TrEMBL record, chain A:
Domain of life per record: Bacteria
Occurrences of domain NADH:ubiquinone oxidoreductase-like 20kDa subunit (ranges): 22-178
Cofactors that this protein relies on: [3Fe-4S] cluster
Transmembrane segments: none
Identification of the protein by name: NAD-reducing hydrogenase small subunit
TrEMBL record, chain B:
Pfam family membership, one: Complex1_51K
Alphabetized UniProt keyword annotations: 4Fe-4S, Iron, Iron-sulfur, Metal-binding
Domain NADH-ubiquinone oxidoreductase 51kDa subunit iron-sulphur binding: 503-548
Name of this protein: NAD(P)-dependent nickel-iron dehydrogenase flavin-containing subunit
Cofactors, names only: FMN
Organism: Roseibium denhamense
PROSITE patterns xrefs: COMPLEX1_51K_2
Family, per entry: Belongs to the complex I 51 kDa subunit family.
Length: 194, 626
């Protein structure tokens, strides 16, 4: 049922991060279900929301990125992942194309698209209930980017796993094949969505 | 028009609200074109000329008169760049923004206009007097920089002449008066010549040498239609617009279609940057052109013809109308032409409105039908089902002129000129870095070296053959021959010397295709934008080696999947320079060191948020003194 190779002398290190995504892709990672137990024999999970480690403790073999870049912190994290991971994977449509958050990129015919977007979201929108009538501006909030960028525009991405969210099967399959060096792309039926 | 809509430029529009007077004017304009929806382009041009924009309320009125929906009218009005959905100035100045103009101090000319008129490119002055715009090639590359002032053309501008023209316009001088104080007393031909030099540098045997009047038509009328087609086919004449389809075969296909009507259309929409040969023929050989169209009508059995003149050549409208009228009065157009019982043929002039795509024959037919200039699905081909569904022959200006000469002098005479497969002579429009830009009529088969010697461009390092959709060649290819089978061209030869930046030229041509894509199919609409962005990466020195593969891959996809010739040729500036100037690309690519994309600029990406939040970035602005 699985293509996992026997446990090697050194466990591979994996890191994951969720940028401008909905966390759905991370939930999909959990859809690997009980195969996780087999997987954990082969890998250590380093920096990841799954381990709650906020920093890299060591260089990683594989980094998995959910979501695109909508703010400066996303860019910072993505740079960090690129510098600390040998192989970087964009997981899901937001990481690959910008996805749903990139809808704001469609505000094009405006001199100040970002301001227009924030105004509508926090002040002028018809169904907004915001008693402060202000756009949130806590110093702890990272600055937004002018538009939402797919990961591949910010750093080089080695592999993409398509889907919204990708199924647990395709994630497991990809990881298993990457770990034993047999990954050669996807079978068409794996990335057919209807 | 005050119709409750606010305009971004804040200009009070001229009154043409649906007050009874304006409603009558609109109704009259529609009436002048028989309320015919197929004359939509004429109707909208007339409204644009009268009110300087197509206001929403007028669109309703036009839709009502022509029995269309408002959105159909708006679809056409928004497609063409010479039609405007916001009010334009009483004088609209369109600066020609071709690469050749850019290399002839367009910047200085633009600055002079901007300074005197007090507006920037793209703006309209607050009093509604002036609009300043840029427009792609207006067919004056041999006398760049050039500009259109309403329907008038100014050529060979310098910052000084631009300044004095702008000052004169601002003091109330009419645009015509810039051309001549006696403009109204000049004949249409003189008017055209006062505005634009024809720069005929070499007259060949077919077109620009002495041409006896209507000799070909006289002979054609003594022949059967089949004999005419046979003669044109035997001459080896191929279409001169660029594609090079055998003219005789095209006529034969159209003639063999049984239909109620046939049409002859002359494609005088020469929009390929760097091409201006048709401009010269329309000015100097208009009778020969109409003669050729009449012969084609005789050959295929057409009673009606259309001469589609690009909007940029509006300064030739009077001249052509006069020629048509003259020929009607002499019995060379109309019924029983030259006394030949039952041979009826007449031509209407259709003016375009600034859309390169309309040079594509399907798009041109759409435009003649009063639609936006979108190409048609092929097959059926125009010779089978073209204008309004009738068999239609669409040929280039030069092709019709050649056909008339072939009928006069015989197929063998024409066939003997040129090379095997490329017979006769060809008009070359030469511009750019050479001593004598202008028109050269030469037989096919000269090498590029020979041509460069003739035009005084021996120090060229690159030559763009056939305009942006053609190919850019380097010195190691200058031995190649100007024929259909080797260096094919619709006529454009643009010479560049060693000081020119190849990547800048390529980027300009891609911006041209981005602007001119009709938007119907995604590969062309979106793909060309991606290509342009990728070239900009190379220009900035931010490209990786794998970006070269990206250029090739994306170009291949656009060529393979686009719907018409525009997308099938738009990657050519990139592909031909990759092939012929590989060092230009490899010199600027750098492999990435750390996998971080140099093209992503975090500082510009957070700039607008910094302004909104009024604070610096804690991550990327480490220098707290900022």
């Amino acid at each position: 049922m699985n293509d996992l190779a026997p446990a090697p002398h050194r466990k591979a290190r994996i890191a994951t991060a969720s940028l401008a995504g909905c966390f759905g892709c991370h939930m999909a990672i959990l859809d690997i279900d009980e195969r996780l137990i087999d997987l954990m024999k082969l890998v250590d999970v380093d920096r990841s929301p799954l381990t709650d480690k906020k920093r890299f403790t060591d260089r990683c073999d594989i980094g998995i990125i959910e979501g695109g870049c909508c703010n400066e912190e996303n860019v910072h994290v993505l740079h960090d992942f690129r510098r600390n991971c040998d192989v970087l994977i964009a997981l899901g449509q937001c990481a690959i194309m910008g996805g749903l958050p990139a809808m704001r990129n469609a505000i094009m015919h405006s001199d100040a698209p970002l301001r227009e977007c924030l105004d509508e979201a926090y002040i002028t929108g018809k169904y907004i209930r915001n008693t402060t009538h202000q756009v949130p501006n806590d110093p702890a909030l990272p600055l937004l980017l002018d538009e939402v960028y797919p990961c591949a525009q910010v750093v080089e991405i080695d592999f993409q796993i398509p889907g919204c969210a990708p199924s647990g099967d395709i994630i497991f399959d990809t990881l298993a094949k990457l770990l034993n060096g047999k990954f050669r792309g996807f079978e068409p039926e794996m990335i057919k969505f209807d | 028009m005050d119709n409750g809509q606010e305009h971004t430029n804040g200009i009070k529009a001229p009154s043409c609200d649906l007050d009874p007077a304006s409603a009558t004017v609109i109704a009259e304009i529609c009436q002048r074109f028989d309320n015919d929806k197929h004359r939509m382009l004429d109707i909208l041009r007339a409204v644009q000329d009268r009110y300087r924009w197509i206001a929403p309320a007028t669109m309703n009125k036009i839709a009502e008169a022509t029995d269309l929906t408002r959105i159909e009218v708006e679809g056409v009005a928004s497609f063409y760049s010479f039609l405007s959905l916001t009010p334009k100035g009483r004088v609209t100045i369109r600066l020609c923004d071709d690469i050749v103009d850019r290399y002839s101090d367009l910047k200085g000319v633009t600055a002079a206009f901007e300074e005197v008129l007090g507006i920037k490119v793209g703006e309209t002055s607050a009093d509604g007097a002036f609009s300043l715009e840029v427009t792609p090639c207006i067919g004056m590359c041999d006398q760049a920089p050039a500009a259109m002032i309403n329907d008038i053309v100014l050529t060979g501008l310098t910052p000084e002449t631009a300044r004095s023209a702008a000052e004169a316009l601002q003091s109330g001088t009419a645009p015509e008066t810039l051309v001549s104080d006696r403009f109204n007393h000049l004949s249409p031909h003189e008017r055209a010549l006062r505005q634009v030099d024809n720069n005929i540098r070499h007259a060949g045997e077919c077109l620009l040498g002495p041409v006896p009047e209507d000799a070909g038509l006289v002979k054609a009328l003594s022949m059967t239609p089949v004999q005419i087609v046979n003669q044109v086919e035997a001459s080896g004449l191929r279409g001169c617009g660029g594609a090079g389809f055998t003219t005789g075969r095209k006529w034969r296909f159209a003639a063999s279609e049984t239909a109620e009507k046939h049409f002859i259309i002359c494609n005088a929409d020469e929009g390929e940057p760097g091409t201006f040969k048709d401009r010269v023929l329309l000015t100097e050989r208009p009778h020969l052109l109409i003669e050729g169209m009449t012969i084609a009508a005789r050959a295929v059995g057409a009673k009606e013809g259309i001469l589609y003149l690009r909007g940029e050549y509006v300064y030739l409208r009077e001249l052509i109308e006069q020629v048509l009228e003259d020929r009607r009065s002499r019995g060379l157009l109309g019924s029983d032409i030259m006394g030949k019982k039952g041979f009826t043929f007449d031509i209407r002039l259709q003016l375009g409105a600034g859309a390169y795509i309309c040079g594509e024959e399907g798009a041109l037919i759409s435009s003649c039908e009063g639609l936006s200039g979108e190409p048609k699905t092929r097959p059926p081909f125009p010779v089978n089902r073209g204008y309004l569904g009738y068999p239609t022959v669409v040929n280039n200006v030069e092709t019709f002129c050649h056909a008339a000469r072939i009928l006069d002098k015989g197929a063998a005479w024409f066939h003997d000129m040129g090379t095997d497969g490329s017979h006769g002579t060809k008009l070359f429009s030469v511009s750019g870095d050479c001593l004598n830009p202008g028109i050269y009529e030469l037989p096919y088969g000269h090498t590029m070296w020979e041509l460069l010697e003739i035009v005084g461009g021996e120090d060229a390092t690159a030559v763009q053959v056939g305009g942006p959709s053609g190919a850019m060649i380097a010195r190691d290819s200058f031995h190649r021959k100007l024929t259909f089978d080797d260096l094919a061209t619709g006529g454009a030869i643009i010479v560049f010397n060693g000081e020119r930046n190849i990547l800048e030229i390529v980027e300009y041509y891609m911006s041209f295709f981005v602007h001119e894509s009709c938007g119907y199919c995604t590969p062309c609409r979106v793909g060309n934008v991606f290509l342009q962005k990728a070239i900009q990466k190379f220009q900035k020195g931010l490209a990786n080696p794998e970006d070269i593969d990206y250029l090739k891959d994306l170009s291949g996809t656009i060529i393979e999947t686009s719907r018409c010739g525009l997308g099938m040729t738009s990657p050519n500036p990139i592909l031909s320079t990759l092939q012929n100037f590989p060092l230009v690309y490899s010199a600027v690519v750098k492999p990435s060191q750390d996998g971080i994309r140099a093209t992503f600029d975090i500082q510009s990406a957070i700039e607008s948020a910094r302004k909104i939040a009024k604070r610096r970035s804690y991550i990327f602005d480490r220098d707290f003194s900022q």
